[in-house]
Specification:
The chain is mostly helical. It is 62% helix and 5% strand.
Amino acid sequence: MAEAAQQPAQPESGVVEPTQPGLAAGGNVTAAQRSRIAREAARGGTPTEKATSLLGLLVFVGVAWLLSVNRSAVRWGVVVWGLGLQFTFAVLILLTRPGRAFFDALNGVFVALLGYTNEGASFLFGNLVRPNVPVGPAEGPFGAVTAVGTWANTGALFAFSVLPTIIFFSSLMTLLYYVGIMQFFVRIFARLMVRTMGTSGAESLSAAGNIFVGQTEAPLLVKPFVKTMTNSELHAVMTGGFATVAGGVMAAYVGLLVAFFPDIAGHLIAASVMSAPAALAISKIMYPETEESVTRGEVKIELEKTDANAIDAAARGASEGLGLALNVGAMLLAFIALLALLNGLLGWVTG
């Protein structure tokens, strides 16, 4: 256990956690802080910051063109439509009242789902899912009691709260795919990109799927077509996977940041939606299409069902999420330790 601090008794029942610097009790943002964050977001940046963002976009397009395998074959209409869809999504999501309301609602859904995740995690880990654990006099036979107690910061919030989020969302997304809900939304985005950008159905489906799931799950939407895909389509599938965030990992980010940015879920979802057409545009610059695709102009989802029922689907999703969560934890442990080692070596070499 880390350092412990004495906390005064509270008049209401239950124990109130110690306040973290800059946050309200329990890690929540105060009304004043929430108002300040909203004002800063509404400003949208200075003209210089906006010009810098536009310049960055042009630089990325230029670098992609320099790295292109066939610069003369680049179809700039596809690129313009891809970037245009990105800006269109941004305007609809961030600058229109219905768009903001819709993504505010999605933000609320994400935050509520995080609460359900904590229910499952609390069943397994108890108070360890909270950053501050009551110990000593504040811990009674039935949990925390109203008393002058001692708190300990376990420092294990990521392991016991964030990683379980990946498992739950993986199970939830697998269940939604089983009942056919996710295919409905994926098909809408895929058809929009096919009709505007002129990309093939297979690569558009994969890009749209990456909005909601990860790099390993999205290609399953186009599994029957993988063996006949062109090199350009395969490159687009890989690019879309790297450009977006899996639903479980996104939920983990929300769990980490929601205390500081209450509407972070809406922003992350918006970024994932906007990244899908942009990923296709960049992919078509770096590896332009020079062959004829067998799925050009059509959107057809053929997702093989291997689960016996909904419970089987949810269980399979949980198992896959467990593997992902363990990988995330292992990678963080290894690379943070390696960076610390490198930092120590540099300090030793430089004196």
